[in-house]
Amino acid sequence: MLDIATELARWCAEGRSFAVATVAAVDGSAPRGPGAALAVDADGAVLGGVSGGCVEGEAYRLCREVLETGRPARERFTP
User: How far apart are CA 1 and CA 38, in angstroms?
Assistant: First the structure.
């Protein structure tokens, strides 16, 4: 998450609404480790990344859903 922290601070200063998906834990091999994050703002702009694969698209979708509903989400992905 630290790799996108500066840009997220700018989004906050601009008053942008956004959601963040964060890798909480990894079991086995994974493209990104715990702490990797993907942020999506209300216009669909993206910062960071969590996987680079199909999980990336699902994380984006979940962020959009959280922005629309205002409800937090937690998801577990397995191979």
Answer: 8
Residue 78 forms part of a structural domain: no
What residues make up the domain containing 56?
A: 2-69
| pLDDT < 70 stretches in the chain | none
The span from the CA of 53 to the CA of 64, in Å, is: 18
Could you tell me which residues are beta bridge partners of residue 22? Answer: 37
Structural domain contains residue 74: no
- Tell me if 79 is assigned to some domain: no
**Residue 32 in domain:** yes
d(CA 32, CA 67): 24
Q: Which pLDDT value is given to residue 75?
A: 93
Q: What CA–CA distance (Å, rounded) separates 17 from 11?
A: 8
Number of domains in the chain: 1
Write out the two tokens for 45.
């702009």
